């Protein structure tokens, strides 16, 4: 049995403390002291992941650690911000499990390292397993990607592939435990699109991350921008293996309404498409045009041949 | 039944959003954008309050909201930082209780207003009641009050009064429900000593907030500063009504080991005592000398006449 202090020290203190960029006083005092970059905006967000709600209670600890940070960093990606620092509130059940905690810390730290984001503080309390992660990033003023900048005529584009998060969760619930399966990878180890967000600064007109599902997050983008959109249903870039795993119909639903993909959904003036694609290709990431913003309200589903299908309004649920 | 989004909007969105100082993009996008003050250090900390562990499950909602923020702001106070912004992770049981939530929000916002600290983000999840609060403050470099600056010969001083938090909790557990009782006030509505922290910049050599109890937090100060201390037992400024409520012996124990006081415990070079007292008097706050830092390790308890009593070492528990 370890005290909270020992837990924190053992698994979450960098070595040496305070050695990270921009940290002028590291973990171990009442606060951590940071040196924000002059002239930048500080982008902040917090997300809490609760066992049994946001991830299966039997998910691998390394994935729980990774995902808890990934979902918060995804918000920074959607602002076009660099991930700089994070703080973690860890609520642990009374029964200590050092092996679990070591794996959890490993997943968390690995993503910190990959994202260049330093863990600069946190606390540990007892209770149902939950992880709250506050992230702090930086972005120059005027370069932040907000939700409100999409204009009629802008292309509706999405990074990477859709439906993989929902597909992976469905497989997990059916008992699939091969964590190398591409869909399980997508669900358990989503990659926040930080580099893509940076690359699309100055090109995209608006951005949001796809955490709740394409249609749900598109609604937020449309609300904030005061526009509507046409969505080309046949163009959705479905995750590799999704149709094989779920069948065509369920795969399409996962692409439209599945959560946990953490791709970026953006508005893009057509003249920026080639440059945007080139920049993302350099990151090994696809950028797919899935529709166009319009001045009609709501979302109009159209087929590849231009036929109009269902219509979706905010709060109206899935087609 | 409200969606998370409605809950957040209804109780936690400022009106108008983003109207607070230093907020260039308010709640409602993927991140909030803040404009840190050039040349200042950003002081950050997070504390999570869990029902049944950090406060009684039947504590008044207004007090739960107040305390959740107060305990985090207290960390900024102990750094000599201004409280500027905060984010809240609220985990709520499945059963909505709008009256409870309204009171909770009222307690939280009232302290935000009093402390000049803006709520700039948050999330709401379902689970056992818990509130994680990340605070961000600012302090000029070189003026931060750290734990590591105490030197032998410095006075050991404490703001306000001790034992009131533990006394109030004891009364609550005995069934006292008059929330105007001074000790219940101390426990349910602790006041983070932000103004005192600012006033003692440039005077104090070290600081920590008393959250776990005087001796426990003194240990942290001594460890970080690499010094010891003599503690004058008769000099502890016990909270008003504490002896009457608990009896002399239990009151003394509450002063030494009781948590939840959120006073500042500081090192102070003797030549700064008068100025420090004057500044705190202007805030209506007492500053009491309760001992002196030394180059012997551990804590030596002495009586007012200089007699040496018990000795306490870090991790050694109460005298």
Automatic annotation (TrEMBL), chains A, B:
Give the main EC class.
transferase
Superkingdom in the source lineage: Bacteria
Per UniProt, the keywords (alphabetical) are: ATP-binding, Kinase, Magnesium, Metal-binding, Nucleotide-binding, Thiamine biosynthesis, Transferase
Q: Which InterPro entries match?
A: PurM-like_C_dom (IPR010918), PurM-like_C_sf (IPR036676), PurM-like_N (IPR016188), PurM-like_N_sf (IPR036921), ThiL-like (IPR006283)
As recorded in UniProt, its EC number(s) are 2.7.4.16
- Enumerate the spans annotated as PurM-like C-terminal domain: 151-299
- What GO terms are given for molecular function? ATP binding; magnesium ion binding; thiamine-phosphate kinase activity
> Any signal peptide, and if so, which residues?
none
Catalytic activity as recorded in UniProt: thiamine phosphate + ATP = thiamine diphosphate + ADP
Q: Which family does it belong to?
A: Belongs to the thiamine-monophosphate kinase family.
Q: Which residues bind Mg(2+) 1?
A: 47, 123
Chain residues that bind Mg(2+) 2 = 47, 75
Q: What is this protein called?
A: Thiamine-monophosphate kinase
Name the residues that bind Mg(2+) 3. 30, 75, 209
One protein family per Pfam: AIRS_C
A single GO BP: thiamine diphosphate biosynthetic process
UniProt: Mg(2+) 5 binding residues: 212
Binding locations of substrate: 54, 260, 310
């Amino acid at each position: 049995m370890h005290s909270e202090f020992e837990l924190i020290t053992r698994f979450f203190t960098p070595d040496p403390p305070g050695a990270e960029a921009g940290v002028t006083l590291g973990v171990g005092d009442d606060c951590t002291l940071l040196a924000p970059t002059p002239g930048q905006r500080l982008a902040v967000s917090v997300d809490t992941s609760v066992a049994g709600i946001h991830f299966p209670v039997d998910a691998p600890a390394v994935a729980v650690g990774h995902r808890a940070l990934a979902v918060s960093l995804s918000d920074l990606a959607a602002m076009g911000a660099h991930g700089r620092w994070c703080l973690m509130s860890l609520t642990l059940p009374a029964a200590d499990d050092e092996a679990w905690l070591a794996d959890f810390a490993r997943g968390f730290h690995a993503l910190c390292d990959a994202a260049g984001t330093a863990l600069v503080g946190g606390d540990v309390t007892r209770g149902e397993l939950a992880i709250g992660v506050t992230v702090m990033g930086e972005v120059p003023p005027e370069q932040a990607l907000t939700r409100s900048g999409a204009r009629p005529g802008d292309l509706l584009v999405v990074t990477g592939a859709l439906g993989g998060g929902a597909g992976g969760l469905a497989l997990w619930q059916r008992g699939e435990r091969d964590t190398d399966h591409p869909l399980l990878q997508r669900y358990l180890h989503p990659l926040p699109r930080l580099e893509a967000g940076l690359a699309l600064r100055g090109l995209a007109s608006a951005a949001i991350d796809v955490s709740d599902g394409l249609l749900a997050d598109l609604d937020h983008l449309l609300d904030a921008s005061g526009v509507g959109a046409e969505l080309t249903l046949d163009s959705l870039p479905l995750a590799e293996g999704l149709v094989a795993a779920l069948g065509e119909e369920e795969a399409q639903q996962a692409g439209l309404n599945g959560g946990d993909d953490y791709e970026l959904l953006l508005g893009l003036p057509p003249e920026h498409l080639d440059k945007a694609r080139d920049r993302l290709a350099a990151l090994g990431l696809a950028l797919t045009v899935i529709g166009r913003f319009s001045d009609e309200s709501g979302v109009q589903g159209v087929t590849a041949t231009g036929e109009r299908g269902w219509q979706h309004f905010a709060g109206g649920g899935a087609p």
